[in-house]
Write a structure and sequence with these properties.
By secondary structure, this protein is of the alpha+beta class. It has helices spanning about 10-25, 35-40, 45-50, 75-80, 85-100, 125-135, 180-185, 190-195, 220-225, 230-240, 245-250, 255-265, 275-280, 280-285, 290-305, and strands at about 30, 55-60, 105-110, 135-140, 145, 150, 155-160, 200-205, 210-215. The longest helix has 19 residues, at about 85-100.
Amino acid sequence: MTKPSESIDPAAAKQAIFEYCKKRGALAVGVADLAALEKIAPPGHKPSDLMPRVKSVISLGVGGQTQGTWQMPAKAMAYSGSTEVRAYKVAYGCSFFIEQKFGVPSIYVPPDIDPEGGPRVPFQSLKLHAEIAGIGARSLAGDILLHPDFGFMYYASVFTELELEPDKPMQDNPCPAPSCVSMYRQIGRTPCMKFCPAQCLEGEIDDQGRQKVMRYDMAKCAEFTQEYEAVPKILAEAVKDEVRSHGAEGLLDPDRKMLWYKVSAGSGAWFAQCFECMRVCPIATKAPASDPILRTESAREASRNKPS
């Protein structure tokens, strides 16, 4: 490290970090309250479990789907519509930026599964980081985070020993949208509840049009969304093969060696693909800056109108 942390202005550092992230594609950036994360996260998955001397948790979100992407079939959307790799790239670069500019240890938080926790347990809850940092709020759609301006985003996190002022969670949750409240008043369900193909979503909206209860049946969701996953397909084929040796040969086929490596490393082959709740969500698809084309045009217009 090149610079002593005592000489750093935390406010200026925070501004520089936010500017770096937004210049490289982040739509929203926030700093989560570390004490809150340490209290909420389960043992083994607290920020300090990953970085013992962590002082700040930076969360960022990216968007990017074209409007046409929402019309794609589920099995293709995760590949064509997902912008999560961009989020990870920005976070990865941000960790290097902090160390280079401020000389303070920082890490890019791995979005992968914890190999000791099983295929559905992550190292850290990036969603929790984003919620506490104020760049997303939990929706009625399985707790997916939504932003009032950017709609549906993918999130990434950075831990650092640089102490930054935390931001506050959103005071007003954009979910449910007024049209969703109106639909709930008529039929007792919101669009995401009605059109969920697995019927894994339930909830209640109070008299003020706010979330009262959200119920999400993860087992139902997983049973449906994992139908496209590579590993369950391969295992099913091996088990049903009447000739046991053929099934074993299929599992050890040379073409599948890379797949097993990725699984053991915690990357790839574990996609949950559905998106039906987000297709019908007016916030995810119709938030003011959710359309990347319109968002870019607005930014260009603002840039043109800047005084010279």
